[in-house]
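Protein: L1 transposable element RRM domain-containing protein
Species: Poecilia formosa
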Amino acid sequence: AMSISRYFSTQSDNMPRRKTPTVDAEENPRPQSSEANMVASTVSEGMDPALREVIREVTANLTKVIEEKLGPVSLLLQTHGKYLEDHETRIKEIETRLSAIEDDLVPSIDKLESLGKRVKDLTERADDLENRGRRKNIRIVGLPEKAEGNDPTHFFETWLPELLHIKTKTGRLKIDRAHRTPNQVPSSEPRPRPVLVRLHNFQDKQRIMNAAFQLGRNNRPLKHGSATVMIFQDFSAAVVRKRKSFDYVKKLLRAIGADYRHIYPALLKITYNGSTKVYKDASEVKD
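Structure follows.
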Protein backbone atom coordinates (compact mmCIF):
# COMPACT_ATOMS: atom_id res chain seq x y z
CA ALA A 1 0.00 0.00 0.00
CA MET A 2 1.20 3.47 -0.85
CA SER A 3 0.91 6.25 1.74
CA ILE A 4 -0.70 9.59 0.86
CA SER A 5 2.58 11.51 1.33
CA ARG A 6 4.48 9.07 -0.89
CA TYR A 7 1.73 9.17 -3.47
CA PHE A 8 1.82 12.97 -3.63
CA SER A 9 5.61 12.86 -3.85
CA THR A 10 5.51 10.40 -6.78
CA GLN A 11 2.84 12.30 -8.64
CA SER A 12 4.75 15.48 -8.19
CA ASP A 13 7.90 13.92 -9.72
CA ASN A 14 6.06 12.36 -12.67
CA MET A 15 3.83 15.31 -13.59
CA PRO A 16 5.15 17.38 -16.49
CA ARG A 17 6.29 20.88 -15.71
CA ARG A 18 3.86 23.50 -16.98
CA LYS A 19 5.18 26.73 -18.34
CA THR A 20 3.85 29.67 -16.44
CA PRO A 21 2.53 32.13 -18.97
CA THR A 22 4.01 35.59 -18.71
CA VAL A 23 1.36 38.30 -18.47
CA ASP A 24 2.16 41.81 -19.40
CA ALA A 25 1.14 44.05 -16.48
CA GLU A 26 0.32 46.90 -18.77
CA GLU A 27 -1.84 44.77 -21.10
CA ASN A 28 -3.85 43.02 -18.30
CA PRO A 29 -3.23 44.80 -14.97
CA ARG A 30 -6.47 43.60 -13.20
CA PRO A 31 -7.76 40.10 -14.26
CA GLN A 32 -11.54 39.74 -13.95
CA SER A 33 -13.14 37.18 -11.61
CA SER A 34 -14.56 35.17 -14.57
CA GLU A 35 -11.06 34.67 -15.90
CA ALA A 36 -9.91 33.47 -12.46
CA ASN A 37 -12.75 30.94 -12.36
CA MET A 38 -11.77 29.67 -15.81
CA VAL A 39 -8.17 29.17 -14.62
CA ALA A 40 -9.38 27.27 -11.50
CA SER A 41 -11.59 25.07 -13.67
CA THR A 42 -8.72 24.32 -15.99
CA VAL A 43 -6.48 23.37 -13.05
CA SER A 44 -9.20 21.10 -11.62
CA GLU A 45 -9.67 19.32 -14.94
CA GLY A 46 -5.95 18.70 -15.25
CA MET A 47 -5.72 17.25 -11.67
CA ASP A 48 -5.20 13.52 -11.20
CA PRO A 49 -8.46 11.66 -10.37
CA ALA A 50 -6.93 9.99 -7.32
CA LEU A 51 -5.86 13.35 -5.93
CA ARG A 52 -9.30 14.75 -6.48
CA GLU A 53 -10.77 11.77 -4.58
CA VAL A 54 -8.42 12.34 -1.64
CA ILE A 55 -9.33 16.00 -1.51
CA ARG A 56 -13.04 15.12 -1.65
CA GLU A 57 -12.69 12.60 1.21
CA VAL A 58 -10.68 15.06 3.33
CA THR A 59 -13.27 17.76 2.69
CA ALA A 60 -16.12 15.40 3.61
CA ASN A 61 -14.36 14.31 6.78
CA LEU A 62 -13.67 17.91 7.81
CA THR A 63 -17.26 18.86 7.10
CA LYS A 64 -18.52 15.95 9.20
CA VAL A 65 -16.21 16.83 12.12
CA ILE A 66 -17.22 20.50 12.00
CA GLU A 67 -20.90 19.61 11.88
CA GLU A 68 -20.49 17.21 14.86
CA LYS A 69 -18.72 19.88 16.90
CA LEU A 70 -20.89 22.82 15.94
CA GLY A 71 -24.20 20.96 15.95
CA PRO A 72 -24.79 21.17 19.74
CA VAL A 73 -23.64 24.81 19.75
CA SER A 74 -26.05 25.63 16.95
CA LEU A 75 -28.87 23.83 18.78
CA LEU A 76 -28.03 25.70 21.99
CA LEU A 77 -28.02 29.02 20.16
CA GLN A 78 -31.39 28.21 18.62
CA THR A 79 -32.81 27.32 22.05
CA HIS A 80 -31.49 30.53 23.62
CA GLY A 81 -32.75 32.49 20.67
CA LYS A 82 -36.20 31.07 21.30
CA TYR A 83 -35.94 31.97 24.98
CA LEU A 84 -34.91 35.51 24.09
CA GLU A 85 -37.83 35.87 21.71
CA ASP A 86 -40.21 34.64 24.43
CA HIS A 87 -38.72 37.07 26.96
CA GLU A 88 -38.96 39.93 24.50
CA THR A 89 -42.62 39.14 23.93
CA ARG A 90 -43.30 38.98 27.66
CA ILE A 91 -41.43 42.23 28.30
CA LYS A 92 -43.49 43.98 25.64
CA GLU A 93 -46.67 42.63 27.25
CA ILE A 94 -45.53 43.86 30.68
CA GLU A 95 -44.67 47.28 29.30
CA THR A 96 -48.10 47.48 27.69
CA ARG A 97 -49.82 46.52 30.95
CA LEU A 98 -47.72 48.98 32.97
CA SER A 99 -48.55 51.75 30.56
CA ALA A 100 -52.24 50.96 30.92
CA ILE A 101 -51.95 50.89 34.72
CA GLU A 102 -50.14 54.24 34.73
CA ASP A 103 -52.87 55.73 32.57
CA ASP A 104 -55.47 54.41 35.01
CA LEU A 105 -53.54 55.68 38.05
CA VAL A 106 -53.13 59.28 36.88
CA PRO A 107 -56.77 60.24 37.61
CA SER A 108 -56.63 58.38 40.93
CA ILE A 109 -53.43 60.18 41.98
CA ASP A 110 -54.93 63.54 41.06
CA LYS A 111 -58.05 62.67 43.03
CA LEU A 112 -56.00 61.60 46.06
CA GLU A 113 -54.04 64.85 45.98
CA SER A 114 -57.28 66.80 45.79
CA LEU A 115 -58.75 64.80 48.68
CA GLY A 116 -55.56 65.32 50.69
CA LYS A 117 -55.83 69.08 50.28
CA ARG A 118 -59.50 68.93 51.17
CA VAL A 119 -58.79 66.92 54.33
CA LYS A 120 -56.05 69.38 55.32
CA ASP A 121 -58.40 72.34 54.83
CA LEU A 122 -61.18 70.67 56.82
CA THR A 123 -58.74 69.71 59.59
CA GLU A 124 -57.51 73.28 59.86
CA ARG A 125 -61.08 74.59 59.91
CA ALA A 126 -62.10 72.09 62.59
CA ASP A 127 -59.05 73.02 64.67
CA ASP A 128 -59.85 76.71 64.27
CA LEU A 129 -63.45 76.10 65.40
CA GLU A 130 -62.18 74.14 68.40
CA ASN A 131 -59.88 76.97 69.42
CA ARG A 132 -62.64 79.53 68.99
CA GLY A 133 -64.70 77.46 71.42
CA ARG A 134 -61.78 77.65 73.87
CA ARG A 135 -61.19 81.39 73.51
CA LYS A 136 -62.69 82.14 76.95
CA ASN A 137 -60.67 79.40 78.69
CA ILE A 138 -57.46 79.63 80.67
CA ARG A 139 -55.29 76.78 81.98
CA ILE A 140 -53.65 77.12 85.40
CA VAL A 141 -50.60 74.94 86.04
CA GLY A 142 -48.85 74.31 89.37
CA LEU A 143 -51.71 75.02 91.77
CA PRO A 144 -51.53 72.44 94.58
CA GLU A 145 -54.27 69.84 94.73
CA LYS A 146 -57.34 70.76 96.79
CA ALA A 147 -56.25 74.41 97.05
CA GLU A 148 -59.55 75.43 95.42
CA GLY A 149 -61.60 73.61 98.05
CA ASN A 150 -65.05 72.21 97.38
CA ASP A 151 -66.25 75.17 95.28
CA PRO A 152 -63.59 75.82 92.62
CA THR A 153 -65.73 78.33 90.69
CA HIS A 154 -66.16 80.58 93.73
CA PHE A 155 -62.48 80.18 94.66
CA PHE A 156 -61.15 81.35 91.30
CA GLU A 157 -63.61 84.25 91.05
CA THR A 158 -61.83 85.93 93.96
CA TRP A 159 -58.37 84.33 93.80
CA LEU A 160 -57.52 85.39 90.25
CA PRO A 161 -58.15 89.16 90.73
CA GLU A 162 -56.15 89.06 93.96
CA LEU A 163 -53.26 87.09 92.42
CA LEU A 164 -53.00 89.28 89.31
CA HIS A 165 -53.88 92.62 90.92
CA ILE A 166 -56.90 93.08 88.66
CA LYS A 167 -59.44 95.71 89.77
CA THR A 168 -63.12 94.76 89.51
CA LYS A 169 -66.33 96.44 90.67
CA THR A 170 -67.37 93.57 92.90
CA GLY A 171 -63.91 92.22 93.72
CA ARG A 172 -64.51 89.12 91.67
CA LEU A 173 -64.52 87.88 88.06
CA LYS A 174 -67.51 86.08 86.59
CA ILE A 175 -66.58 82.47 85.90
CA ASP A 176 -68.83 79.89 84.24
CA ARG A 177 -66.99 76.81 85.50
CA ALA A 178 -63.65 75.50 86.76
CA HIS A 179 -62.32 71.97 87.18
CA ARG A 180 -59.15 69.87 87.19
CA THR A 181 -58.09 67.88 84.13
CA PRO A 182 -58.20 64.93 84.13
CA ASN A 183 -61.03 64.53 86.60
CA GLN A 184 -59.39 61.69 88.53
CA VAL A 185 -56.02 62.05 90.25
CA PRO A 186 -53.41 59.73 88.65
CA SER A 187 -51.82 57.55 91.32
CA SER A 188 -48.39 57.75 89.67
CA GLU A 189 -48.40 61.53 89.05
CA PRO A 190 -46.86 63.58 91.89
CA ARG A 191 -47.45 66.94 90.20
CA PRO A 192 -50.81 68.69 90.66
CA ARG A 193 -53.28 68.46 87.81
CA PRO A 194 -53.86 71.55 85.64
CA VAL A 195 -57.02 73.56 86.26
CA LEU A 196 -59.28 74.55 83.36
CA VAL A 197 -61.22 77.78 83.98
CA ARG A 198 -63.87 79.17 81.63
CA LEU A 199 -64.52 82.90 82.00
CA HIS A 200 -67.96 84.33 81.28
CA ASN A 201 -66.53 87.29 79.36
CA PHE A 202 -63.73 87.14 76.78
CA GLN A 203 -62.52 90.59 77.95
CA ASP A 204 -61.89 89.22 81.45
CA LYS A 205 -59.86 86.38 79.95
CA GLN A 206 -57.73 88.92 78.05
CA ARG A 207 -57.20 90.97 81.23
CA ILE A 208 -55.97 87.84 83.02
CA MET A 209 -53.52 86.93 80.25
CA ASN A 210 -52.17 90.49 79.95
CA ALA A 211 -51.69 90.80 83.71
CA ALA A 212 -49.91 87.41 83.90
CA PHE A 213 -47.66 88.40 80.99
CA GLN A 214 -46.67 91.72 82.57
CA LEU A 215 -45.87 90.12 85.93
CA GLY A 216 -43.76 87.46 84.26
CA ARG A 217 -41.97 90.10 82.20
CA ASN A 218 -41.10 91.96 85.42
CA ASN A 219 -39.75 88.74 86.97
CA ARG A 220 -42.60 88.56 89.47
CA PRO A 221 -43.66 84.90 89.52
CA LEU A 222 -47.20 83.97 90.51
CA LYS A 223 -47.35 82.21 93.86
CA HIS A 224 -49.85 80.30 95.93
CA GLY A 225 -48.11 79.75 99.21
CA SER A 226 -44.73 78.32 98.26
CA ALA A 227 -45.94 76.89 94.92
CA THR A 228 -45.22 78.68 91.64
CA VAL A 229 -48.29 79.00 89.43
CA MET A 230 -48.42 79.62 85.68
CA ILE A 231 -51.38 80.69 83.57
CA PHE A 232 -51.75 79.77 79.88
CA GLN A 233 -54.37 80.12 77.23
CA ASP A 234 -56.32 76.95 76.49
CA PHE A 235 -55.60 75.70 72.96
CA SER A 236 -56.23 72.54 70.96
CA ALA A 237 -53.61 69.79 71.00
CA ALA A 238 -52.43 70.73 67.49
CA VAL A 239 -51.76 74.36 68.46
CA VAL A 240 -50.04 73.28 71.70
CA ARG A 241 -47.68 71.00 69.73
CA LYS A 242 -46.94 73.78 67.27
CA ARG A 243 -46.18 76.29 70.01
CA LYS A 244 -44.10 73.75 71.91
CA SER A 245 -41.83 73.40 68.87
CA PHE A 246 -40.55 76.92 69.70
CA ASP A 247 -39.39 75.93 73.21
CA TYR A 248 -35.71 75.61 72.30
CA VAL A 249 -35.79 78.90 70.38
CA LYS A 250 -37.42 80.69 73.32
CA LYS A 251 -34.70 79.37 75.62
CA LEU A 252 -32.05 80.92 73.36
CA LEU A 253 -34.01 84.17 73.14
CA ARG A 254 -34.15 84.43 76.92
CA ALA A 255 -30.39 83.87 77.10
CA ILE A 256 -29.69 86.87 74.83
CA GLY A 257 -32.38 89.06 76.39
CA ALA A 258 -34.72 89.17 73.39
CA ASP A 259 -38.44 89.83 73.83
CA TYR A 260 -40.87 87.34 72.33
CA ARG A 261 -44.56 86.57 72.40
CA HIS A 262 -46.86 84.07 70.75
CA ILE A 263 -49.50 85.26 68.31
CA TYR A 264 -52.57 83.15 67.65
CA PRO A 265 -52.58 80.43 66.62
CA ALA A 266 -48.90 79.44 66.69
CA LEU A 267 -46.76 82.34 65.50
CA LEU A 268 -43.77 83.70 67.41
CA LYS A 269 -43.17 87.45 67.50
CA ILE A 270 -39.56 88.37 68.34
CA THR A 271 -38.19 91.82 69.13
CA TYR A 272 -34.40 92.18 69.31
CA ASN A 273 -32.09 95.16 68.78
CA GLY A 274 -35.01 97.35 67.77
CA SER A 275 -36.18 94.93 65.06
CA THR A 276 -39.44 92.94 65.24
CA LYS A 277 -40.20 89.87 63.15
CA VAL A 278 -42.90 87.20 63.15
CA TYR A 279 -42.06 83.54 62.46
CA LYS A 280 -44.34 80.66 61.48
CA ASP A 281 -41.84 77.89 62.20
CA ALA A 282 -38.94 77.43 64.59
CA SER A 283 -36.62 76.54 61.69
CA GLU A 284 -37.12 80.02 60.25
CA VAL A 285 -35.48 81.69 63.26
CA LYS A 286 -31.84 82.44 62.42
CA ASP A 287 -29.00 82.70 64.91
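Remarks: The longest strand covers residues 227-233.
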